[in-house]
Amino acid sequence: MASCPAISIIVPTWNNLAMLKLCIKSIARHSRLPHQVVVHVNQGSDGTRQWVRARGIEHTWTPRNVGICKAVNLAAYKCRAEYLVYLNDDMYVLPGWDVPLYQRLLPLADAEPCYVSGTMIQAAPISPRAIRADYGPSAERFREGRLLGDYRNRSLACDDWVGATWPPCCVHRKWWDQVGGYSEDMYPGFYSDLDFSMKLWRIGCRRFWGLGSSLVYHFGEKTTSLMRGPHNVNVKRARKMFLNKWGILPSTFRRHYLQAGKPYQNLLSEPNGVELALWERLRGLAVSVSPFHRRAA
User: Fold this and answer.
1) Is the per-residue pLDDT at 188 higher than 50?
2) Alpha helices of 153-272 — where are they, by DSSP H?
3) How far apart are CA 46 and CA 96, in angstroms?
4) Of 21, 119, 153, 161, which shows the fewest CB atoms inside 10 Å?
């Protein structure tokens, strides 16, 4: 463990020990920078807490599942680096994944708010710039050798893109602290990534940079699938919370503000108010152009 890590890696987990072991193994093998790992253990009734303690992994713990947002915030208190990385426990990082995240932020330091993210490899992509490839649905069926072989053969290449708002992501501590980390009112965590990006947008961040050179394999919502509730009730509740909080839909922010998935451009521009109003009407909610947009314009 480095005394002065370049990055601190936050990994929240909830009774997902097999995946967490694989995630931690990949961090140890494939990271190139001096780093600190801080795991938040939600509940840990599957032996997770005993496992991280036995291996001397820095961690925080709550006896019940407090959700993603509070988990990452609790872990952030133990982070020593100036650059905070948030990584899901069902992600396997590929060689050198951490270097591009750090290098893109380093020239800006704390002078300009900037959010950078790696690119996910998924069997069923949920982000507009994920790489579609299937290397197994679980830790037990993971085709690690095939994944690493394809990485070495450069068959998983991807260009940079805009609209980054998903882990693995990295932000300077100054901006994390200024926006107050993740919003715990978004429990259990649906749309919390977009909420965090919206808070960064509000303080002037216009650089949401997706990096094709930082790759992770994402097994795919292994924990969040347990929290959706009957008929996706928790997802619908979070969508309504985002709308009430910011005056626009999550899809509006992703599409018109972040322009998620488009080729990388240096800085994002303000969205067109007419396009926003039309998009909201097409989504069937008849929401007027938001007070947030009027303030930001």
Assistant:
1) yes
2) 173-179, 192-202, 233-246, 250-252
3) 31
4) 153
**Alpha carbons 62 and 72: distance in angstroms, whole number:** 12
- Please give the model's pTM, rounded to 2 decimal places: 0.91
Helix-helix angle 233-246:192-202, to 10 degrees: 10
Cα-Cα-Cα-Cα torsion 267, 272, 273, 274, nearest 10 degrees, comes to: -170
State the Cα–Cα distance between residues 189 and 228, nearest whole angstrom.
Answer: 10
Q: How far is CA 236 from the centre of its chain?
A: 20
As separate numbers, helices (DSSP H) first and strands (DSSP E) second, the chain gives: 11, 10
For residues 99-105, average pLDDT: 96
Half-sphere exposure of 47 (CA within 13 A, CB side): 7
Q: pLDDT-derived band of residue 182, with 50, 70 and 90 as boundaries?
A: very high
| Cα 245 to the center of its chain, rounded Å | 20
Domain residue ranges in the chain: 7-270
The CATH architecture one would assign to domain 7-270 is Alpha-Beta Complex (3.90)
The predicted pLDDT at position 93 comes to 98
